[in-house]
Design goal:
Blueprint: E1 6-7, E2 16-17, H1 22-34, H2 41-52, H3 56-76, H4 81-85, H5 90-99, H6 105-108, H7 110-125, H8 130-144, H9 156-166, H10 171-194, E3 197-198, E4 205-206
Helix pairs in contact: 1-7, 3-7
Amino acid sequence: MLNLGILLNARHRLHLLLLPFLQTFFLTYATDTAGSNAFPVAQGVDLFQMFRKSRPLHVFLMLLALFVGILSVHFFSVAHPYLLADNRHYPFYLWRKVIMAHWSIKYLLVPVYICSWISIIRRLGKFRSKISVLAYFLATATVLVPAPLIEFRYYTIPFYFLVLHCNNRDDQGWLLTGALYIGVNIFTMMMFLFWPFQWDHEPGIQRFIW
């Protein structure tokens, strides 16, 4: 029987590998958002210039990537039951209130994912060989694709590897990244300490966390 899942442990525990190919897209967006030290402000200008001066082959490849991305979003937008069962974690709200807020949003985000991947590949390609860039992509996809849950911690090691291999020395980028992380940590602590809530079906105080 074809069930499109790989069983780990007991099936009733829902430990399934559901092949959510969107994990690689989420990684790129998280990396571009959190990685200003790896992607300085000038990188956005370079990316715009690249699109403006694209050759026919580049345009075709970008359209092909867009087509593949839309297919991936359409067929592999997998919501693991654990993701929808716990409203204490931010991915719960990211999925329900953003990605699935309207049927069109998941498709509208595809160009953002594609641009993020192009940005990562171009930035990493300035410091590493094409083989290294391909190895990074394949290794990242191999680790993330079988992971059924959207967890920001899954992106930590790929992000660190990317930053370390980019050899970036942009002071503005590092300062911006530091300010961003401080802001995120303050927000996380404020939500955890001062905005508790309770479940109707279970006693005790619940708190928001990543």
